[in-house]
Amino acid sequence: MWDDFSTLALVAAFVVAGGVILMAGLRMTGLADTLADRTGLGEALIGGVLLGAATSLSGIIVSVTAALDGYASLAFSNSVGGIAAQTVFLGVADMFYRKANLEHAAADLGNLFQGVVLMVLLMLPLVAMTTPEVAIWAIHPVSFAIPVVYAVGLIAGRAVHDAPMWEPVDTGDTKADQPEEEDAESKAKSTQRLFLTFAALMILMGAAGYVVAKTASELADRMEISGTLMGALATAVVTSLPELVTTVAAVRRGALQLAVGGIIGGNTFDTLFLMASDISYRDGSLYHAVSSQDYFWIVSALLMTGILMGGLILRQRQGPGRIGIESALLLLVYGGAVVVQVLSGGL
Fold this sequence. Notes:
A middle domain of Talin 1; 0% strand; mainly alpha; 76% helix; single chain
């Protein structure tokens, strides 16, 4: 079907689908903030689980579709490339929070804990790569471990939220997660209706993600672009646009924990792409079907997550209008990774 379209039509479909993902993600931010207040679960947890998973739906559709079609590198790099891209969005969002350094003002134990879980999950594909190729029903054992670690992390994260054993020090720049007064239009809508609207937007994003996957794989073949480059720098960035918009929107409305939690939680959820892709890839272990260029993005994502974690712990107090050192480092590392990927033969 897709090979019947012209290259121009494929590019147009890719762009339109990306626009749908972007607009749906923007609408989700306000809904998630309201639901965080109504349910009492807090911005960090709602951002990390509900918003993070919802905005990642289009990405998982891309990875699964690519894996089913036999594009191992596209499926793999779309996942880990998206994690790197989404992490750098916090550096961009820091530019929009003018009062203080974002990582200082958004200090939250739940986000720190989810960051630790994310780093553990990112190490699992490296374990698969450095061990013999073993498969059960063409699925590597690491793919069974990923959802277990993710689920344990969610359960433990809820415990951290409900009964924290320590708390960040409050300063004059700390922005606490406190329920905000809803406007009249929002109050008129039931919590159930808000959840249904949220679900409808997720379905729309999933459909757009399918279009992105199909057009991207066809364009990669026609333009002779490697699956790694297409996945890490095209589909990953496009399907991550909701995270950029939702993060900046959340920061501008003062929902700082929602912004940081949405990125870290979305990244944690994105590791499930690897499990789903390995199950969908029927030619053996996905982790052994990809190249070192694909694993380069795992290393980049780990490095960037480590920098983010350091920033959340250090809580540097930059003056108003200045981004933190960790935000500058995130931008630098991601920019450097893109250059290295292109120069190392990604095209």
